[in-house]
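Human: Respectfully, please carefully check these C-alpha cells:
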Amino acid sequence: MKKDRMFYRFALYGFLKNLRFFEPFMVLFFLESGLNFFQIGVLYSIRDLGTNLLELPAGVYADAFGRRKSMILSFSAYILSFLVFFFFPNFYVYGLAMVIFAIGEALRTGTHKALILEHLRIHHLQDLKVAYYGRTRAASQLGSALNALLAAALVFYSGSYRYIFVASILPYALDLINLATYPKSLDGELAGLQRGALKTQVGATLRSFGRMFTNPDALRALLNSAGFTSFFKASKDYLQPILKTFALSLPLFLALEDTRRAAVVIGGVYFIIYLLTSYASRSSDSVSKRFTNLAQALNVTYVVGAILLFIAGLASGQNLAVLSILIFLALYLLHNLRRPMNVAFISNRISHKVMASGLSAESQLTTLLMAVLAPLVGFLADRLNVGAALACLGGLMVLLVPLLWVRPAD
C-alpha cells in the first residue's frame, strides 16, 4: 500500500496517543492507593458513563463544527485529568479525574477515525479502508509497546505508580500540536459553516445519525463491534494482577522490592504484547481476505474471543498463570485484528457526513456496556476471585452471540 504524507501524521497521532504510561499499571495504581476491585470498577464505570453521556453531543459537535477542534479539546482534557490523578490521591477526587478523562474520550472516540476516512474519501482511496487504518493502528500499537518499557522504567526508577501520570503529559502535548496542524479540509463539508446555518446543520446531522438506528444492518454492525470491544476492555486490565502475582512467584530480582520486581515483568510482557498487536493490526486486511466476507470474519473472531475469555478465567482460577497470560495475549491480538475490520464494516453502512457521529455511536454503546460490566466484574473478583469473574464474563459473551451476529452486505 502506498503511504502518503498524511499517513505518517495519522500514524504519529496514534503512536503518541498510546504513550499512556499509566495504562499497564492502572489497576495496580488503584490497588496501591488502597482501593478494592469493586471501587476500581466504580471508577471505570464513572469514566464510561461520563463518556457515554457526552459521546453523542461530542460526535455531533465534531461533525457539525470541526473534527480537529474536537481533538484539540480532547487532548486538553486528558492532560488536565493526568494532573488531577497525580496531585490528588483520593478515591472521590479520582472520580472527578475520571469525569475529566471521559470528556477527552468522548471528544476523541470516533473523531480521529472520521478524519482518516474523510482523507481517504477526498483522495478516492475508500477501497484501502482496512489496509490504511490497519497500518496506522499498527503505529499506535508500536507506541503501546514502547509505552510498556518506558512505564516500567518509570515505576522501577521511582518505586511508585504515581509518577506515570505526570510523565504522560509530554507525549500528549506533542500530539496536541500534531492535531492542531492537520489540514482544514479534513473537517469535511461542514468546515467554515456560517453562524446562521448552525441550527440547520445540527438538525441535519441528528437526523442522519438517527437513521442509523432504524437501519437493522447498521445497528447490528455497531452492536457487534461495541459488544466485543466492551468485553475485551472490561477484562484486559485484570492481566495486571495476574502478571504481578506471576512476577513475584519467580526466583528473580529477589533483592528488589515488590513494586520494582513486578514492573520488570509487567513492562516486558506488555512490550511483547504490543509488538505482536502492531503486527496484528498490519495484518488485518490480509486476514480479512481469508474469509468469504467481512461479516464472516467478524462473526468467527467474536466467537473465538468469547471462548478464549472463558478459558482465561478458568486458567486463572486454577493458578495457571502462564496459560492465562498466553490467552490474554491471544485476546489482544484478536482485538487488534478485528478493529480495522469493524471500522471498515461500520463505515460501509453509514453516511460519510455523519462518520464521527456514527463511530461515536459505536463507542457510546461500548462505554455503556463497560459501565455495567466493570463494576460487575470487580464485584465478582472481590467476592469470588479474578478467574471466576473472567469466566463469567466469557460465558455472558457466548450467550450474546445471536444478538451480535452480523450479515454480509446485499
Observations:
- The domain at 5-404 is CATH 1.20.1250.20 (Growth Hormone; Chain: A;).
- The mean pLDDT is 83.
- The two ends are 28 Å apart (CA to CA).
- Residues 129-158 form the longest helix (30 residues).
